[in-house]
Amino acid sequence: MIQTPIRQVLLTIQASGTRTLLMGGQACVFYGAAQVSKDVDFLILAEEANFKKLHAALDTLAATRIAVPAFDPDVLARGHAVHFRCAAPGVEGLRIDIMSRLRDLACFDDLWQRRTVIGDADGNEFHLLSVPDLVQAKKTQRAKDWPVIEALVSIHFRENAATPQPQWVDFWLGEARSPELLIDLTARFPAQTASALAYRPLLALALAGNLPDLRAALDAEVRAEQDKDRLYWEPLKREMEAFRRAERE
To answer: For residue 129, which of 113, 149, 140, 148 has the smallest C-alpha distance?
Structure first.
């Protein structure tokens, strides 16, 4: 169940008309891949009218910026996150992170078309990054994100295995992180596995049932993705240091 302060933030953002997608830990909570998350992370449509709506929602939440960078559309467009802390009754201390761009993900409009909409008993709707897009967004340097990716894919498979769609099978074959699940998938879907081998060669190890080498290949895959994320963030970290120096001065 979504926690009351989180719900208050989500409903406030929604009531403002701001076009956002929930991502990060709270989206994982909705999908059942995490138990708790302290922050609320949003991807926002980068348009002036949408920014104005967001500012109105942040005012309602008494949310103030707590760190660099400043709220600047150009800064958001380069991939930075802007951080706020809420002070309104009921959401005191809750942190909100805003981004408009994610590494290796499509533009907001495409992500919006693929989004997941989850309703509650009161008729409210919450708009989330789709599971495949959330998986991609969670491919970070942080070790804690990779078990969440495994859980997201496994949950998606369990919920849809009885009626698999071709695009879902491609997603499972491309992103599953459990060796046992990969062995099961390659046995169930040999034709799609043959096509997927071109972009994920470790599926050959799953086909062969070679668990030791498959585990090693999955670990190497994580390290390669972590290196990719590290390279992506290096120039952004340098910009952050420049932002901090400028703010101190």
So the answer is: 113
